[in-house]
Amino acid sequence: MRCWACSMLTGNTAWPKPAVPTTSTSSKLPPPKIRPCARWPRPWQSSWTRTRRRPGRYAPACLPAFPASSWCWPGRPCKPCCTRRAIRTSRSWPSATACSSNSRPGCWRRWTSGTALPATTSRPRWNWSRTCRPAGAANCRRPCPRAFSNRPGASWSWRKTARNRTCATPTSCACSPPCATGCARATCTWPRRINMPILSSYLIGPFEWQQVKGELCAQLNLPPVTTDRLTQRLQELQELLAPMQQLLEAGGDVRLEDGELVVGRVSAEEVPAGAQALQQEISRRLPVVDLTDILVEVNGWLGFPDQLPGLEHAPRGDGHDTRLLAGVLALGCNIPLTDMARSTGLPYQSLWWTAANYLRDDTLKAANTLLVNEHHRQWLAAYWGRGTFSSSDGQRFAVSGKVRNARSLPTYFGTGRGVTMQTHSSDQYAQYGSKVVPATLRDATIVLDEIVDNQTELAIVEHTTDTAGYSDIIFALFDLLGLYFCPRMRDLADQKLYKIRGEDWTYPDLKFTGTLNPDYIRRHWDELLRLAGSIKSGRVTASLFIRKLQAYPRQNHLTYVLQAYGQLIKTNFILRYLQSQPLRRRIHAQLNKGEELHALRAWLWFGSEGVIRRKQQEEQAEAARCLTLLTNCVVLWNTVYMQEALQQLQAEGYPVDETHFEYLSPSRYEHINRLGKYSFENAAQVDPQHRRPLRRP
After folding, report:
1. From CA 64, how far away is CA 125, in angstroms rounded?
2. Model confidence at 199, in pLDDT bands (50, 70, 90)?
3. Pairing mode, if any, of strands 417-426 and 389-398?
4. Which residues face 485 on adjacent strands?
5. CA-CA-CA-CA torsion sign (40, 41, 44, 45)
6. What does the alpha-carbon distance between residue 412 and residue 460 come to, in Å, rounded to a whole number?
7. Domain match, 566 and 619 both
8. Which segment, 1-5, 7-11, 74-78, 554-558, is predicted with the most confidence on average?
9. Partners of 398 in the beta sheet?
10. Is the pTM here over 0.90, yes or no?
11. Whole domain around residue 557: which residue ranges?
């Protein structure tokens, strides 16, 4: 004898079923003549979760929320699963006739104890199930889930039938043509619950936005009539079309071959012989120095430990700066504090206490800002750039143990896992930002955070990345924030370009296969400005909002309008990128500077075999900040002594050409000793057999 639910799945209606209450809500349901099914889980197991997620393993797909063996009859106490789901979390019962309005298919609900639900109009605040009986599917007893939440900023979205408090399990017929009455092949469809906060809750409120709109638009360098920005971008596209067609017809490094776009490789700029000789002369004059001496000297120049206040303002004991520099060196070089305490002779407890109380993400960022500003004021740094152009790239490090934000990436970690340290480098070789993210996260998601949160004297207006650092949304956000985004994009021949709807323009023989509607962007222009103002004012970070956009349903119009505007900006950039070889060369040169700094960071990160053993993301962020602090200390120290070397060469009568200064680099480290000094003089007291005494426990 099979159970009643199993027989229902086969369409056998001969088995007895529970009676359905019609109008009276106080009548009791007779106990159905059923018995438990062996395929159902135990009463104390979560049959709801297991049935919903893995219906094929534990139970058929169309079963009640609770197994038959756990149903509670009148006069008997409820089982633990029933008590947890219904009694301990219940406040009121839903109305028994709430689902029968608007001529919808009627629902019948039953309390797991076998009695009908009492009628009430108050809304439940707990998860409850409805056993529906839609029209045309008499054998369906699949439960209808529904939940309510009063959390701030939370919005529960349901299908229309669920929002109208009607039956949430309509049937879908697989026959062709569809059956007018009950169908044996009819299946139940589940409502989709979306526990997603409303996107507008992350932005500035509508009333507040009208008050601060003028000020924020001025900070974003928008014209008085803000929609003129869109008009300017459309005019730029129109002006770039004719020169692009002429360039393709000329057949230079950018040409068409068999209808395919071919872009020649940008050759590396040759370093003049005079610049190479000058580089060698400077290397011969730079002093050989220990890494610890660099920290001590830079501390004497700036006193950057003053930017590292502790949770307790008064330091404990003497030698506070020494312990602080030792902690920075240990975290920045990935050296365990136990090894640092043994190498320096400092007490481990005091070293650990100093690192835990003073080396935090906010304090390390303030100290790093001081170093970047000091480097920006050096006269040699002005030959490398104006401090307005920057680049970002990720550097991947393997991890050891169970780290929550680590991800598998066989190309870099083999069978292990790792994280990515995202760094932002200026054209003056100073690094003004760093962040630790999962290794599989695209650079485009977090590329804007450090630029918007930049607190240094560097006025960043241009930024470049590799291919992984761009997306249509990133193009739109950069332009809305008044910044110029110029990534190095691969596979330009396969990039999709966009035409303007309603404009009879002549387009080049490229892949202009997309279409943009500028009127659609104008209708939602104020929402774009509101988003840009929220990011600029710090109301929401760009990475957080981009993640919410990616996780939100496709019906969200803000995603579409951002992509549409970003596609326009990307089309303009690709046309400008193809027409300007100096722009391509400049982008490559800036990305090469970032690679040089990555080589310096990898050289400094030598402890523990370069493997991150810090489990918490906060500890990883502190280590990344310390590594950036060490890198900027080395860059600043090299810049200062390179200036001294240049002045000495000029005093000696060496022919110094200022046009060669731009080929110099402060990211060198051949003259730095990172491993300390070892002594082989045995100064310990030994016995005649040259053995020292054991320690006393």
Report:
1. 21
2. confident
3. antiparallel
4. 463
5. negative
6. 31
7. no
8. 554-558
9. 418
10. no
11. 198-250+470-579
